[in-house]
Amino acid sequence: MNTNPIQRSSADNQLGHRFRYFDFVMAAFVTVLLLSNVIGAAKPTFVTISGEQWVYGAGILFFPLGYVIGDILTEVYGYARARRVIWAGFAALLFMALMSWVVVSLPPAEGWEGQSAYESVFGQVPRIVAASIAAFWAGEFVNSYVMARMKVWTDGKMLWTRTIGSTIVGQGVDSLIFYPLAFWGVWEPAAVFTVMVTNWLLKVSWEVVLTPVTYVVVGWLKRQEGVDIFDESTNFTPFSTSV
Hints:
Blueprint: E1 7-10, H1 22-40, E2 44-49, E3 52-57, H2 64-77, H3 79-105, H4 115-122, H5 126-153, H6 159-183, H7 189-209, H8 211-225, E4 227-230
Helix pairs in contact: 1-2, 1-3, 2-3, 2-5, 2-7, 2-8, 3-5, 5-6, 6-7
């Protein structure tokens, strides 16, 4: 297997660098994002703990993978390229929401009996869709920003502190936006708070559990790409797609 010596570099010095695996990581990020908003959001499930049922959305099983991949993107490729991926995911979510609405609205063919099932999966409430997209955008940018800043502060050491720390903050912002926007006035305030905190804790716990995997993937990608990027003079505005 061909590997390159890992060289520390500022993000500004990598504008012309050709990365071997960036496109694959971006594709994985967008795929997990879309799946978590279609498959995961459509089915609540439960786990029994001490004889009591705890209900949660099935998306919790793989939605946090998006944050893990987001951490990998920022750690390996820098904030600016992670920003491009976040915008790609944002556009993909908007397109998916639009096309889901269009397809659900089309009249079903005579004799087809699957319309109600189709609507239950793809006919999501506009308020929940809007809350999900807003929470994703804000949470991912906060996650990437904290990750990049902490890398400079720690001089690239102790990867676990920034993967977990960025997820605590990023997922906190995500949850604080999504649950009140989606369910305030629909659920009791106590239920909104309970589900918000529970899902935040589960997502952060997933990040902790997957930390060894993150170490392996980050190390492998850095060796393959041959660089270790630090955002020492990066413009951290989220309102850009340039690198």
